Recover the amino acids of this structure.
């Protein structure tokens, strides 16, 4: 902390000093890891974003090169923010977080480089690295600064993938195996087939994910962007309305 001013000028006697947090004393980084992109934000101790960077991940790109590009993205954003050293790095990524190992669980539907990037940042930077499902992080944000409040609620995430986050008694609930919000695997489909452990196309995901929404839009004459882009599905819904 440091002295940022004084108060009590209207009173007799010496003024009281006012102290505030030295915001630039430490910096934290947030990673937003997607299938098609990596985003980084650097924030100071007061939570103010001081640098932001993003890169597009091309389909079929070499995983090792993606990891190196992600680390360069982080270091470049940190330099831009004037952060000589980061205090903590937090990752938000799709998929299951293994509650025993703290690593992303392997899945046939998500790229392996997600976990590799987390591991490399841990190894190279030597600072605390937090990893959480991105929908769970969205629920924490809603609880702290949005519509969630202190009550019980479920946040449903519909985009390129489908997920949910559950907050009960003010606490985020991950489930025994970390999959409490994986509603994309619910056995609800128009094919009658069941989803598998690595493929949720025959589950709820296959009905409401961006690919299904874009296909439904095209069937009704509404042009859409790439089905892998969650923004394309949102745009199609707005057009339909």
């Amino acid at each position: 902390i440091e002295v940022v001013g004084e108060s009590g000028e209207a009173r007799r006697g010496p003024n009281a000093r006012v102290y505030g947090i030295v915001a630039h004393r430490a910096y934290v980084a947030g990673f937003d890891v997607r299938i098609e992109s990596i985003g980084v934000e650097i924030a100071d101790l007061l939570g103010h974003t001081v640098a932001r960077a993003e890169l597009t991940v091309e389909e079929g790109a070499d995983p090792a090169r993606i990891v190196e590009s992600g680390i360069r993205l982080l270091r470049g954003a940190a330099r831009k923010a004037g952060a000589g050293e980061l205090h903590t790095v937090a990752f938000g990524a799709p998929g299951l977080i293994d509650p025993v190992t703290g690593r992303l669980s392997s899945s046939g539907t998500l790229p392996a480089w997600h976990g590799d990037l987390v591991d490399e940042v841990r190894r190279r930077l030597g600072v605390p690295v937090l990893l959480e499902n991105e929908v769970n992080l969205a629920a924490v944000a809603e609880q702290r600064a949005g519509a969630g409040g202190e009550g019980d609620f479920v946040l449903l995430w519909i985009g390129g993938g489908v997920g949910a986050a559950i907050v009960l008694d003010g606490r985020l609930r991950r489930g025994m195996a970390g999959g409490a919000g994986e509603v994309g695997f619910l056995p609800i489909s128009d094919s009658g087939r069941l989803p598998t452990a690595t493929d949720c196309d025959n589950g709820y995901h296959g009905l409401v994910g961006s690919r299904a929404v874009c296909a439904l839009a095209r069937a009704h004459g509404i042009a859409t962007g790439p089905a892998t882009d969650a923004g394309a599905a949102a745009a199609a819904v707005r057009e339909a309305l």
Notes: The chain has a mean pLDDT of 89.
